[in-house]
């Protein structure tokens, strides 16, 4: 069905990229001292495997199991969801290490790798996998890889500006990871949009695929505290980030159940909300997980995020799709986009709610731009810092939208292998599928009982 | 179908509770010093994220993935199992932090939160989720929440008496968590029982839901050593708790396979035993995981627990249901109840099997009531301690049974939204379900092969 | 159907073995000092729970969830895959602790148990579970246990020779765990082979069982760095092992997608490759995960492993089955066998690529046989060490093949309960199965839509 050029396109592209990655790592990459043999190491280095590795592994589960299984809810797209998630993640991890490494290289392009780089590479993968959620089912494997190729450097450069130039605090990456990924994905969906992508018969779940999705959802939920705490500077900040995220998620989950039922005509829960909106509290507290000092502040953030997210799924996603032509398959706007913005604005509010004196000997670790020099002066005051946080939100929104939209247009080009209209949200063209694929994913029934007692060859006529 | 009052009941209840939680946390809750910024911290505080957090996260997986997926075995109740598990957990975590915090507050009601409180909140959630197992499929979401509301304070006050007044050792919570949850659940099932709940056509599993349940079962199995070790006082006690639990689980699992096959007419394994009884060894060693000094003692406990649990599923659960009207959906008596009692009685036995001198400088950390003052005297001797362990078992059994039974009667009141008789063990009334819900969950077949070659609209007549 | 003798065989065997294990642990087993109460402990002991436990738990997830779910891909063998995996693991853990403990006992047979022994027991379980993969669906539970009984001591004695006599470095066990398990399994399959095992109608997957398998695959993928790093000697070596494994897996996964598509006639991905070959990079870097100092070296190893593994599934597995009568159900030759050999040969290459001076104060921790005495002399030079690594590969290949083949012949004896020809790769004879078992696992369709509107008892004639 696909032309030979399109059929072999991915082989070529993956081959070229992997070769280029290898050469780049060979020429410019090396391990950091903490991962190399030495006889005298400082204590901090030595404890990295103890302090950081468990948090890294939790994040790793979120990327591969969490995102991967969360997207298996589509009835005919489970193979793609979990596999392409894996492919994009390993692509972005390598590409992200290169881009981030070279961008941060003190001189030249040499970059070093230690546990931190593996962790931040996982963060970079999260950006791309969030965008994948908006585009889920609409792209061929080639197009997904091309999307990741373009999105990664934009995301990392914007992150670099936010962290190094604007010196913002975004410990859980809600602005630079979640909001960026979401609005890139939405803009890409707009640029790439065709009416055949909307109201497609392959959209929707089956009973068991919704349960598969819950595997991803719950692992994301469980390990989100680790995601938000992993790069916090001090031990108490990490513990605070864990507790804030935990409490925000709890309050968010209660609210999700509440609102999910309240907005439904038949007062039934919607599994889309349970699997996604329960996580919004993790995003919304992400930017300030190391800042918030009062448990109930974290809970309020969670309540708001849960309510906004469910309302987003119920009203905003259909509106975006039908009125604005922005089809967001997984509703990433509701799980990552709006909660990411909430996180950003909360970071401004908390700058004024809390006060430097409440962070003895730590304020500058949270906000490096507000570090006091010996004479007590500092580069930024609270207002400047707040303005920077705001500018970061604006920059992320703008840069992700523009680059996402252009990427969407680019992916429309006929040079790329395109998914056939009838095969949106379906594995069949790209994966070998077992014999029950059609059956399992197309059943629509309301039966009391089916009982088939023995084998009878079913001729086509009789059926 | 449900009256508007009943339809909107959960919205109201969740809203009220979440608002009350927020206000209570705002007025009385704050973070503990270890989670707050400070410049001089003692070493123990600083290592909490390193020492405790991995064990906490393992426990967290058990609560949300473990309990949640273990209960997905019912063919038509997968959405509820995994979702209501999540709802009850986040409800109980917040409610439990409040109750436990206020009960332990040195003066007034102020309570503090750190990683320990998040961990013990997960333990409180376990109590309620075990009771949920006995009631699985019989309650509306509202009723589940009401059950958790009443059960949590009783469980935590009983725990407080056991730990602070009776000074018992129950490191893995087998008495105060597992036995309490199980017997509360059984008594609640008795109080709430109707004959329509027994022998219902919706009970039972499908091939794939049994596999979903194994996800929960195996994660519980894997992380049980962390559950039993998490609150042990010293590093060697934690390692011992891990090893004892690990060995008990291994011996228990071997025994489960053995007995499961032995008691079956056709000598086939029963997945209910594989998914549940294999875990009984974790419960049965829980109380004394930090006490047992000989590997084979832990293994003997595991062997006994596995055998008792399978025999419970095979003979005791049907007996309780048919003769005593106690319908125990998940068989929590066999996984948590009887193994919890075994753990309690084992704790008495091991008090006399081992001897103070075998625990140099540690006996008082395991049994604070037996701490020697400077003149060598101690509050309790072994016999008193044994009596206290016994009294704790009795108290837990009594308090859980009485409070559970009353809760069961209370849940029967028509003011609560009730599940319709034909919809016991089914998601349909409370969750939006995909088109294959009826089909997938009602197939009963014995076929050699089904082959449907192409689409033919099936008119009702022809079928 | 089975004779009473065969039906009760497993009960008897499990009973005897568990009793023997109990007696052996009682007579010879005790906890190591680090797990026993004491008032003065050295620092290294005290940090074991902090340093080693998270890596142990990751490995534990790999054994029980990873291997267990990876093997659920067969459409009618999910119960067996996940349950027998559990049974063999707990059998081997106990049996392995005994064998390894007695083999390493300084005098007599007394052995001690601490966290390390639990970890290495999990490694021993991995050997047997890999062999199980080759035999999957062909053995009765009794036969699996007998296989594990014979394989465990051979594997552990060969390991002992490799590590203590030949002093090889094989930090991730790619030679002594993966290659041994794979070639034992293949030889066993040869010895046990019958033509009815090949091209069986029960082989193959369904849509959802392939997704179940991905749960196992991804958890293996995520935690493989922990497996390869767990027993590395120093903190930097552990971090290096993590990073090398991580990068090798990433490059391997890219290559797997590339080659999977390239070799397919319709340019579609094969889920067998995605679930298995993506992991080959973890095996192939296993032996030298603590040795490799250049990131791109690890990536090259990953690329080679991924390519070899996919080509193995596509061409070598069918060849072995059809031409040589070696039926390898899970293709363990492609995931564990050949990548294990690659790991072995890579360990020889890296001995000459890197140089003693690059490992200050650490060379002897990686290669104890090359430790320098005070006068600068050493037992082995690089060539001897290389020869030893080569001899280890040869020994593992030979010992596993011979012992596996003999075990296969032994399992053929009619004294053991045998699987009926028509019930290969099927749960039905050994597990109670729910009503949809036949239906769910025998559907073959290509339909546009199935809609069944209401219940109609289907008489056999009408169907």
Automatic annotation (TrEMBL), chains A, B, C:
InterPro entries: Ammonium/urea_transptr, NH4_transpt_AmtB-like_dom, RhesusRHD
Topology relative to the membrane: Multi-pass membrane protein
Ranges where the Ammonium transporter AmtB-like domain occurs: 20-419
Domain of life: Eukaryota
Keywords, comma-separated and alphabetical: Membrane, Transmembrane, Transmembrane helix
Signal peptide range in chain numbering: none
Name of the molecule in the record: Ammonium transporter AmtB-like domain-containing protein
Transmembrane segments: 12-32, 52-70, 77-98, 118-137, 144-166, 172-193, 205-224, 244-262, 274-293, 299-316, 337-354, 390-411
Membership in a protein family: Belongs to the ammonium transporter (TC 2.A.49) family. Rh subfamily.
């Amino acid at each position: 069905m696909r032309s030979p050029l399109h059929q072999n396109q991915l082989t070529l592209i993956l081959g070229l990229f992997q070769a280029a990655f290898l050469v780049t790592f060979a020429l410019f990459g090396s391990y950091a001292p903490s991962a190399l043999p030495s006889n005298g190491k400082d204590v901090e280095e030595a404890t990295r495997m103890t302090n950081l590795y468990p948090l890294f592994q939790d994040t790793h589960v979120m990327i591969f199991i969490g995102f991967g299984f969360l997207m298996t809810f589509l009835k005919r797209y489970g193979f793609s969801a979990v596999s392409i998630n894996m492919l994009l993640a390993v692509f972005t991890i390598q590409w992200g290490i290169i881009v981030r490494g070279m961008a941060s290289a003190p001189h030249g392009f040499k970059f070093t790798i230690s546990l931190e780089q593996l962790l931040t590479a996982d963060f970079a993968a999260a950006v791309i996998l969030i965008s994948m959620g908006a585009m889920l089912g609409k792209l061929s494997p080639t197009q997904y890889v091309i999307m990741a190729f373009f999105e990664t450097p934009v995301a990392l450069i914007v992150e670099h500006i936010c962290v190094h130039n604007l010196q913002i605090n975004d410990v859980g990456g809600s602005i630079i990871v979640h909001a960026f990924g979401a609005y890139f994905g939405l803009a890409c969906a707009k640029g790439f949009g065709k009416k055949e992508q909307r109201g497609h018969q392959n959209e929707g779940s089956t009973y068991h695929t919704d349960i598969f999705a819950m595997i991803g959802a719950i692992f994301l939920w469980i390990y989100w505290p680790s995601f938000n705490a992993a790069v916090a500077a001090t031990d108490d900040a990490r513990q605070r980030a864990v507790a804030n995220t935990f409490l925000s998620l709890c309050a968010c989950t209660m609210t999700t159940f509440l609102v999910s039922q309240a907005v439904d005509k038949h007062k039934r829960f919607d599994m889309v909300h349970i699997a996604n909106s329960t996580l919004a509290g993790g995003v919304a507290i992400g930017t300030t997980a190391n800042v918030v000092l009062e448990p109930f502040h974290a809970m309020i953030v969670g309540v708001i995020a849960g309510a906004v997210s469910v309302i987003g799924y119920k009203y905003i996603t259909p509106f975006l799709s039908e009125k604005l032509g922005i089809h967001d398959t997984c509703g990433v706007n509701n799980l990552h986009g709006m909660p990411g913005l909430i996180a950003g604005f909360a970071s401004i509010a908390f700058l004024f709610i809390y006060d430097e004196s409440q962070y003895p000997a730590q304020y500058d670790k949270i906000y490096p731009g507000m570090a006091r020099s010996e004479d007590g002066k500092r580069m930024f005051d609270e207002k400047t810092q707040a303005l920077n946080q705001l500018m970061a939100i604006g920059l992320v929104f703008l840069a992700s939208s523009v680059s996402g939209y252009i990427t969407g247009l680019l992916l429309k080009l006929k040079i790329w292998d395109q998914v056939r209209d009838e095969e949106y949200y379906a594995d069949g063209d790209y994966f070998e599928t077992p014999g029950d694929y059609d059956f399992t994913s197309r059943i629509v029934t309301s039966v009391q009982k089916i009982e088939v007692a023995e084998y009878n060859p079913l001729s086509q006529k009789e059926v």
